[in-house]
Amino acid sequence: MCAKKNREAKIEVPAALDADEAARIAFASDRELTYHDFAEGEHPIVRIEHLNKSFDQTKVLRDVNLNVWPGEVVVVLGPSGSGKSTMLRCINLLERPTAGHILIEDQEITGKSTTDVNNLRRDVGMVFQSFNLFPHLTAKQNVMIGQTKVLKKSKAEADAEATKQLDAVGLADRADFKPPQLSGGQQQRVAIARAVAMHPNVLLFDEPTSALDPELVRGVLDVMRDLAENSGMTMIVVTHEMGFARDVADRVVFMEGGVVVEQGKPDRVFDHPENPRTAEFLGSIG
Ligand SMILES: Nc1ncnc2c1ncn2[C@@H]1O[C@H](COP(=O)(O)OP(=O)(O)O)[C@@H](O)[C@H]1O
Ligand SMILES: [Mg+2]
To answer: What is the mean pLDDT of each run of 10 residues along the chain (286 residues)?
Structure first.
């Protein structure tokens, strides 16, 4: 026989739920878990069912289940290595799930062609810890490029939208600066303007303030708070900013070891964590 091959056992999960049935179940279960208001008959905008992700032999996500409703702000907390980034990256297919289902507006996104993935990335924006701006383009050009290349907007339209979004993040006067001429906080605000200018249905944030000097964190959080409170956009935010989570989140999700250990309304999770691991984590950083 050939050398032992370290093949992972296939993970079996049930088929994705029917959309109406999933919405009914989520409506019943989620009302206790979030301050976000949703109506009977409404459907979650993101449905994660039995999501598993492994890298080689390492199981990073184990049966993650989560609904996010249109306009809801969900903050994901958890120690380093718990799988937070991997979950976010699965939602826009920067990572391919090993097993399970992710549905955006009831459309299953796993097993899609490249074109569909491009469409998906248009609908699901992402703000990274490291900004990921083009260094040779100005702030405004960075905000325009996705609009012209992906959304096929005219230059004039993209320019007007970029101006509006840079103004919204307080950077109207930095439109012609290139990233190296901007502080980290300003660069991150450009990255947020760029993401918002695409008008995604869902915006993902992966530790958007973790790379910033402490004095620059506030400006970025203020922009995110404004988006959360005034834009109606669906946001899933991975952060260690507990004040932001408590004040801005509709729902807090605590992950550890690739599992959603606990989720609920922020004051409930912060003040009365049900799981000892959540309590320990919140205690250690509080
Ligand atoms: N591309 C990859 N290849 C191998 N292991 C990875 C990869 N990405 C993440 N991991 C592992 O998955 C685990 C979870 O990582 P991650 O999702 O980045 O956690 P978090 O964002 O919560 O800190 C870690 O143990 C990490 O080393
Ligand atoms: Mg991470």
So the answer is: 53 92 96 96 97 94 97 97 97 93 91 75 92 97 96 97 98 98 98 97 97 96 97 97 97 98 97 95 82
Q: Which atom of ligand 1 is nearest to the CA of 80?
A: 23
What are the φ/ψ torsions at residue 142 (nearest 5 degrees)?
A: -60, -35
Residue with tokens 């947020």: 192
**Beta strands per DSSP E along 118-264:** 124-127, 202-206, 234-238, 251-256, 259-264
Is the whole model's pTM more than 0.85, yes or no? yes
Task: Give 167-184 pLDDT, tens digit per residue.
Answer: 999 999 999 999 999 999
d(CA 19, CA 117): 21
Q: Which residues pair with 266 in a beta bridge?
A: none
Residues with CB under 6 A from ligand 1: 55, 58, 60, 78, 80-86
CA–CA separation, 90 and 51 (whole Å):
9
Backbone angles phi, psi at 30, to 5 degrees: -90, -20
Is 76 in a helix, a strand, or coil?
A: strand
pLDDT in tens, 102-113: 999 999 988 777
**What's the gap in Å between 13 CA and the centre of ligand 1?**
22
